[in-house]
Amino acid sequence: MLHLNEHGWGLSTLMGFIFVFLLAILLISVNAYKMGLTSGNVSNLPITRPGDNNNNQGSSDSDNNSDSFDNESTYLELESKLSSAAIMYKDTYYNGLVDGDSVYVTNKQLFSVGFLNDKIFNSGECIGYVKISNKGGSFEYTPYLNCAGKYQTSGFISDLAK
Fold it and tell me: What is the pTM of this model?
């Protein structure tokens, strides 16, 4: 027969349970982060531009629906919008992308699922795609953009944008 301590559990037992509980939460959080199950800020993900040797750490969340193409920052902002939409697309449809594999996602695909909503892309003035690569468990998003002879990302392949 089991004899219980009439004084209940001691402080050391309580501390042990708290430690085990916190350790379990920590392990679950780390594994969820590694598997991409967290809905973190997409501006911290690596977004690269072809021809650049450094990563663009961040993207603009503001909608630029103006029709003026007077400077390169407008195109860089559009590339950033493509990349941000591709991040959401990958998390939804390609979360199990194998190490070393790449997938291309067009602006039409991003628009059709509601991740890209910019009238520049919707009007057909600009077309583009994003190459999503899994490099050792770290995902790289490389946007390619072509805006009717006004701007084209280095390395743009028109067949991939269809």
Answer: 0.56
